Amino acid sequence: MRKSYLLTPGPTPLPPQVRAAMARPIIHHRTPQFQAVLKEVGEGLKYVFQTSGDVYILTSSGTGAMETAVINLLSPGDTALTVHGGKFGERWTELCKAYGITAEVINVEWGKAVDPQEIAKKLKANPKIKAVFTTLCETSTGVTNDIAAIADVVKKTDAVLVVDAISGLGAIDLKTDSWGVDVCVSGSQKGLMLPPGLAFISVSAKAWGLVNAAKSPRYYFDLRTAKKAWESTDTPFTPALTLVIALNEALKMMREDGLENIFIRHKKMADATRAAMKALGLELFAPTAASDVVTAVKVPAGLEGEKLVKTMRDKYGVVIAGGQAELKGKVFRIAHMGFIEEFDIIAGISCLEKVLSQMGYKFELGKGVKAAEEVFLK
Ligand SMILES: *Cc1c(COP(=O)(O)O)cnc(C)c1O
After folding, report:
1. Residue 286 and residue 252 in one domain
2. What pLDDT score does 2 carry?
3. Is 22 in contact with 242 (CB distance < 8 Å)?
4. Are residues 176 and 75 in the same domain?
5. Same domain membership, residue 184 and residue 297
6. In terms of residue numbers, what domain contains 122?
7. Which parts of the chain have pLDDT scores under 50?
8. How far is CA 205 from CA 67, 94, 331, 376, in A?
9. Do residues 86 and 233 share a domain?
10. Do 276 and 248 share a structural domain?
11. How far is the CA of 281 from the centre of ligand 1 (A)?
12. Is the Cβ atom of 196 under 6 angstroms away from ligand 1?
């Protein structure tokens, strides 16, 4: 028997209310019973997205909502601007390529945030760019981009701004309407505290203009169909209704806590994690734009990063994430997103100290935990 601690940037742990909701008997989705849930969920999503517009629910992982954005906004031959700097920024380019859309790329060094002025320059140099695809939290590097500043740049042009907020929505601030984010996409298994399987997308009036004109092939992910169904509180196809019912519970919890308090809690957990890493003599991978939902840490020289993550998981049940793609073995990532509290963080840091010590890394035992506790005591 072993207790397990999930500190990964998706999936994240599930609150008991969410798990209990999924154990209820299944109901039919074209019923007043489910419609009542959809109505509540619709309101809850608007609250979390900070938008007055409708947020559409898709049955897919988060990437399904990213694909929905690309094919509904653009046509083959169109030009888009994408921002690299991690695995998820690159996904926008791959999606564009799959549909014959030209992606102009801004290459950002991994671990850094994009400079909004770079986006301004590109938009000025190429007025054909119809959409700018960005990422709120680049989960692979632990960077949060300045979406408010990017939106300020994009809203002065004819282009629309699309934000992948799959990681970060409901955990760090993203003001869809007041910042001017045209399309915001998210997924269920990160800040929203659900299992994987649902994706979400909001669409501004400016973006609807493109949706109605786009010529990319689309069927399952056609936003026009989703909109039509949503007008009668319905979905075009069978939704993952068990997850939607669970989402209703998660959204109720979030409304009770209040977004502001949720953001403060995440910032505190991130501050504590960062303080602990520094106290252990470890280096953050993204010191200048560190995200409040996941902390990426450089593996100290001479240590095997993959082994560190594996030992914590298999020997002690504390699950953190390793590095992805070019960062494999070079960083480890501790998530502090969703249904995570200070003592989960303490447990994670404590286990990290134990395994680092066993691997021969030299530091004063307990120093990381102490630094985190000091942040939590403030
Ligand atoms: C997790 C994640 C995704 C991918 O979501 P899937 O649900 O695996 O499709 C995309 N973007 C970011 C920033 C993520 O963190």
Report:
1. no
2. 80
3. yes
4. yes
5. no
6. 16-256
7. none
8. 19, 26, 41, 42
9. yes
10. no
11. 30
12. yes
Q: Which residues contact 98 (CB under 8 A, 6 or more apart)?
A: none
The CA 364 to ligand 1 mean position distance, Å, reads: 36
pLDDT tens-place string over residues 206-262: 999 999 999 999 999 999 999 999 999 999 999 999 999 999 999 999 999 999 999
pLDDT of residue 310: 98
Query: pTM of the entire structure?
Result: 0.98
**CA torsion, points 83, 89, 95, 101, in degrees to nearest 10?**
0
In angstroms, the Cα distances linking 8 to 110, 303, 328, 352 are 20, 21, 15, 14
Atom nearest to 199 CA in ligand 1: 7
Boundary-marking domain end, from 229, 256, 283: 256
Distance 358 CA to ligand 1 centre (A): 33
The residue to mutate among 12, 84, 88, 136, having the most atoms of ligand 1 within 8 angstroms of its beta carbon, is 88
Residues 26-58 as b/e (b if ≥16 CB within 10 A, e otherwise) read eeebeeeebeebbebbbebbbebbbbebbbbbb
**DSSP of 64-78:** HHHHHHHHHH--TT-
Q: Is 61 in the pocket of ligand 1 (CB under 6 A)?
A: yes
User: What's the pLDDT at 274?
Assistant: 98
One domain for residues 217 and 240:
yes
φ/ψ (deg, to 5) at 321 = -110, 150
- 312-321 tens-digit pLDDT: 999 999 999 9
Mutate which of 63, 145, 166, 188 for ligand 1? The one with the most ligand atoms within 8 Å of its CB, which is: 166
238: domain CATH number? 3.40.640.10
Which atom of ligand 1 is the closest one to the Cα of 165? Answer: 13
Convert the pLDDT of each residue in 155-178 to its tens digit.
Answer: 999 999 999 999 999 999 999 999
